[in-house]
Design goal:
By secondary structure, the protein is mainly alpha-helical. The chain has three domains: 86 residues, no CATH class; 68 residues, Orthogonal Bundle (Topoisomerase I, Chain A, domain 4); 126 residues. Helices cover 49% and strands 6% of the residues. The chain has 13 helices and seven strands. The strands form three sheets. Strands 1-2-3 form a three-stranded antiparallel sheet. A two-stranded antiparallel sheet has the order 4-7. Strands 5-6 form a two-stranded antiparallel sheet. A hairpin with a 6-residue loop joins strand 5 and strand 6. Helix 2 runs antiparallel to helix 3 and helix 11 packs antiparallel against helix 12. The chain is globular.
Length: 330
């Protein structure tokens, strides 16, 4: 490869006007291409990465922009950059929070059912993470952020990256949620939004993770002992995860382990891990209650065979229906 080509590829991996996910994808795609010399391997990696976005499994910190703002230098003839709008919102809440000239303001682009301008969908990362109803604008990030740098590289070898995206299945995997906490989203304005909203309103079984319209699927409902053991195991895992992360954050912040952690550093990976673990911990009361109800209402055979001889009063049709509140773990 010529030196000019090498410099071009390096620029794509170190430029600061994008997001971390963009740099990671470009670097990993190049490594896969040089290692395997097989574009199909690169395509598979890209499709897997994009699918994680549709499944809401991608970490938020990989999609935070941080662009320079120069307050007072923008024209009134057009909308200002998204970072300027986010900075202006901060100044409304705190007049002393005006950014210095050239400061980099972090923001993410949230999905909106009504479309709207890009600047109207730009949000402060902390504000975005504090609202469990919000999701990243997957289409924008893939088509406007992730694909363009890949196209500039792989068009040189005849690959059509945009066609890879157009051909891949874009199914939305149901989220594991608490059916008691409904995500109060605004009503869809068209048929496409209604279809997408229907996908996001589906849930996963709290035990096995399979698609289910209620808190547990029918298979787990009739496998009482296995389900109880699995629910208790999930509770212990979630609680241990939060305790371990809190211990690390308390050590870094110099606070007592029993005190709440107030650190909100967007540059710390443990901050995002703590927020994610705390969000998942909100499922614990539901898991514990569900496990207790199954233990109380199930009349299990005493000979140890695990055969359910009684009838569960849990009621597969009525409790935790999909019309109850749902909470999506992030």
């Amino acid at each position: 490869m010529c030196s000019h080509g090498q410099k071009t590829l390096c620029i794509e991996t170190v430029r600061r006007d994008g997001v971390l996910a963009q740099r990671k994808m470009v670097e990993n795609c190049l490594k896969i291409l040089f290692r395997t010399q097989d574009l199909s391997e690169v395509k598979d990696y890209c499709c897997r990465s994009w699918t994680k976005l549709f499944e809401n499994k991608a970490p938020v910190h990989d999609f935070i922009f941080a662009k320079e703002v120069r307050m007072g230098t923008y024209s009134d003839k057009g909308p200002p950059p998204p970072g300027v709008v986010v900075a202006a919102r901060r100044m409304v809440l705190d007049p002393n929070g005006e950014p210095q000239y050239g400061d980099r303001i972090p923001y993410v682009i949230a999905r909106s059912t009504s479309g709207g301008r890009l600047v109207d969908r730009a949000m402060d990362p902390l504000e975005f993470m504090n609202n469990n109803q919000l999701r990243l604008d997957v289409t924008y990030y893939i088509t406007r952020v992730l694909i363009p740098p890949l196209e500039r590289i792989f068009n040189l070898v005849g690959a059509d990256v945009k066609q890879w995206y157009n051909e891949m299945p874009k199914t939305v995997i149901p989220e594991q949620v608490s059916p008691r906490k409904l995500k109060a989203a605004p009503p869809p304005t068209n048929t496409d939004d209604a279809i997408i909203g229907g996908h996001f309103m589906s849930t996963q079984c709290l035990s096995c993770g399979e698609s289910a319209s209620q808190s547990i699927c029918e298979s787990c409902y009739f496998s009482t002992q296995e389900t109880i053991a699995d629910l208790n195991f999930r509770i212990r895992i979630k609680e241990d995860r939060v305790m371990n992360i809190h211990r690390i954050c308390a050590s870094c912040a110099g606070s007592a382990p029993s005190e709440p952690i107030h650190c909100e550093s967007l540059d710390c990976q443990w901050f995002y891990a703590r927020r994610k673990a705390e969000a998942r911990l909100e499922l614990v009361p539901l898991l514990a209650e569900l496990s207790e109800e199954m233990e109380m209402d199930a009349d299990v055979d005493k000979d140890g065979e695990g055969t359910v001889t009684g009838v569960l009063n849990l009621g597969y049709e009525s409790p935790y229906s999909s019309e109850d509140d749902m909470y999506a773990s992030s």
